[in-house]
Specification:
- The chain has helices at residues 18-25, 58-68, 76-92, 138-152, 165-173, 199-214, 224-229, and strands at 38-41, 47-52, 98-105, 108-117, 122-130, 157-160, 195-198.
- The chain is of the alpha+beta class.
- The protein has a single domain (34-229), classed as Gcn5-related N-acetyltransferase (GNAT) (Aminopeptidase, 3-Layer(aba) Sandwich), CATH 3.40.630.
- Strand 4 and strand 5 (122-130) form a beta hairpin.
- The longest helix is centred in the middle third of the chain and has 17 residues, at 76-92.
- It starts with 17 loop residues before the first helix and ends in a 12-residue tail after the last helix.
Length: 241
């Protein structure tokens, strides 16, 4: 936008180093704890390894999301598009204080969960996705990122919303999450209702409930066997959606 100058100036055009612009557009990162990686034994006996996303995972995951966004059922298309943007935003540094986890079984990418810190008191749940129906990965993946927010970031509240009926049933309904006043308060994902967990409900019942329904707890002492089995990241040949 150009506006006529109210006073004469000595220089009417300035050369700007775009690195200075980047300093304005990208905010300073919070000091966030590192997710150390955890293993969880699933109900079918297999071991799920949940670790933080790595730079080398981004391109393969974007390839998976390109397939997911074309699936016109159960809201996979819109979730795929949004997750694609969130993963690409990691590389482009256009997501404030994100935490992104991948769930692996023998190196195969079968689960995804992410969120971000709003500030020191609030964290936002973004998406949880699974690519194997029999593995029932939804609960442990959602539990892992909720655990990170409540136990490691130690925020006071964790805000979720649900684009799909299955997601709402798994976390919103099953965990009896209350909602914030609507439309006065809206989740950043499309302005939907905010479902939330606070420290009282987390410590009082939800943390234990999650462990019960998963059948195991997060084990941060990941064995050498599990680490070796998941050294190489690979995407599934077939997506079970």
């Amino acid at each position: 936008m150009k506006i006529e100058l109210p006073t004469p100036v000595s220089v009417e055009e300035m050369k700007i180093d775009v690195r200075e612009i980047e300093g304005i557009l990208s905010s300073p990162a919070m000091n966030m704890p590192v997710w150390p990686g955890a293993q969880v034994k699933l109900l079918d006996g297999r071991m799920l390894y949940i670790r933080a996303i790595q730079d080398s995972d981004i391109d393969p995951i974007l390839g998976v999301m390109e397939k997911v966004m074309k699936v016109e059922k159960d809201f996979y298309d819109i979730v795929g598009v949004r997750v694609y943007g969130e993963v690409l935003a990691l590389r482009r540094k256009r997501l404030k204080d994100p935490f992104t986890f991948v769930g692996l079984i023998d190196g195969e990418f079968l689960g995804f969960a992410n969120g971000r810190a709003w500030d020191k008191d609030l964290a936002i749940s973004l998406h949880t996705m699974t690519f194997s129906r029999r593995a029932k990965l939804g609960y442990p993946m959602y539990y892992a990122k909720t655990y990170y927010a409540m136990e490691m970031l130690k925020v006071q509240e964790w805000w979720s919303t649900f684009e799909s009926y299955n997601g709402w049933r798994m976390a919103g309904l099953s965990m009896a999450q209350p909602t914030k006043p609507f439309p006065q308060m809206q989740h950043e994902l499309g302005g939907a209702k905010i479902f939330y967990v606070n420290q009282d409900t987390w410590q009082g019942r939800l943390k234990e409930y999650c462990k019960q329904i998963i059948g195991d707890d997060l084990n941060f002492k990941v064995t050498d066997e599990v680490l070796k089995a998941n050294e190489k990241f690979r995407v599934p040949e077939t997506l079970e959606l």
